[in-house]
Amino acid sequence: MADNSMLMSETGRSLLADSSVLDSRIIETSKENEFPGSVLDVEEEMPQIETRVVLVQEAGKHEELLKALEEIKVPYIKTDTIEELGDSDSPEFETVYVVTDFQDSIFNSLCKADCRVVGPPLVLHCARKGEPLPFSCRPLYCASMLNLVLCFTGFRKKDELVKLVTLVHHMGGIIRRDFSSKVTHLVANSTHGDKFRIAVSLGTPIMKAEWIYKAWEKRNEILCLNIDDDFRNRFKVPPFQDCMLSFLGFSDEEKANMEEMTEMQGGHYLPVGDERCTHLVVEESTIKDLPFEPLKKLYVVKQEWFWGSIQMDARAGESMYLFEKSESPGLKKSVSQLSLNTPNSNRKRRRLKETLAQLTRETDMSPFPPRKRPSAEHSLSIGSLLDISNTPESSTTNGETPKSCARPSKNSTPLPVKQSARWQVAKELYQTESNYVDILTTIIQLFQVPLEKEGQLGGPILAQEEIKTIFGSIPDILDVHTKIKEDLEDLMINWTENKSIGDIFLTYSKDLVKTYPPFVNFFEMSKETITRCEKQKPRFHAFLKINQAKPECGRQSLAELLIRPVQRLPSVALLLNDLKKHTAEENPDKIILERAIESLKEVMTHINEDKRKTEAQRQFFDVVYEVDGCPANLLSSHRSLVQRLETVALGDDLCDRGEQVTLFLFNDCLEVRLLCEYFS
Length: 680
Prior knowledge:
Residues 421-610 form the DH domain. This protein is an alpha/beta fold and 680 residues long.
């Protein structure tokens, strides 16, 4: 029977088609039973074999199963004992046995006789999808793990491994001894070994053995596919499984937060110095050397390893995040003089050491120049910035920066020593605009782009809707201000007193009206989304911790950076007013500046009005969703909520005395809501 069924699956004659759930054993068997001659000859010589489904014992009483077989028009017979059927290996029939219990004596007898055995859930699954029963050389109870390829690591007990492998086969899964990119899930009993590290690097889900046992418990739930993310995530190996962590150099509040996160991610924490500790997490900005000699088995890592592991939902490789001690007292003394933030990556750290060594050889003077102010990195590097407080560090000061921040200035001509007051204000306007563009670029390159990136280790950190809510029209705002910055830079390079700055802002006023309202209107929602996601999603919290610690952010949180667009236009308006004061009456730009200022005021008025309308609409929809039985005709484009008032009834006209009554005053009507009724 087995030979015939295999042959017929190749020729396509059988009603039980091959679904490619094959392994090397099936392929080898098919080669051994290969007939001479072409497939076409075989088709001409061999008659069509009829499929016969045999429902054994309890399977014959399964009403839903009987109905499914009738729907797909597959003939079946019922039997209490397999002996009643005689020889099942008949050339006239391809027999498939449906058995409800994959552990009883009948099942074992069918397996020994090399019969094809399936479970009721598999038949129901195929019937619902309108597909033929899949072919398999092994008993197949359900399709819960159909098309999944599993690999195992860390299991020392052979009996346990055999049991797990058998269950996976019963649910349609495939087992691979060696790990490769084709493996869809790694089942791990240990967080050590090459398979585990490769799975982490490829982003392959790493599961507990409990996943397989729980999936088998749900084997009769037809709609429960174990590839479902919600079900799978319950049984993923947490990042800090088998880890004992200690924390050094952190504040009490930060340490408590990290200890709580450790337990949430499957680990445990211990006091510093405990010999059971597997990882010592160090705050590298405050700890320059360890207070004790660590054991060889202890991983001493930077905090980026901790947050990185949570972000990718798997234990990161320690070798990339090892804490490096100062090599010598001389170097330690030199580094202490450096006023810049210490680079985070090993590559930047090595580059810094090489530079220090070279400078020390070339001169006896201190190798560290005085720290430049943030504005010093721009071509017009004197004066103060309007919004200098809480400003990210400049690009060359802090190592890696977004590409747009690293572009060299067009200005290579030395500036005159003395300039007019008008030039000074124009220069400050350019500096603040350049700084603002850098901030917007940092928001996009450091936060938005990584969150939107496909193929993130551990899966997406946030849903696309949440990302859109947080960042809104920031990319559009950046595009407009990049053009304004470039125009201002050209103007400053070719400066004359008659150059028109007002024209620049008049040119882009329509673009400002288009780009700012979508962001400003939903800024509060953006902050609320950040706060909610940070509390509910540990991976997002870890993502923010990693990126907000980078020099580009200037120690500011994402929410603090996102408030800059709300503040920018009022700052520009103030600078344009100041510029107008220092512009001579006969200067043509005087009138143009006045028009530019009025244009900016109109933009801000439009934004405020649009924001007011948006908030009113939100309040309106809140009323509609809150009130049961709210009439549909209440929704209208011209209607807005003026006031909501909570009252208590004093009369007996509409309701009993003391009953709560809510009044909704709209611009054209009054709505009354009682505790259980609604009146217009």
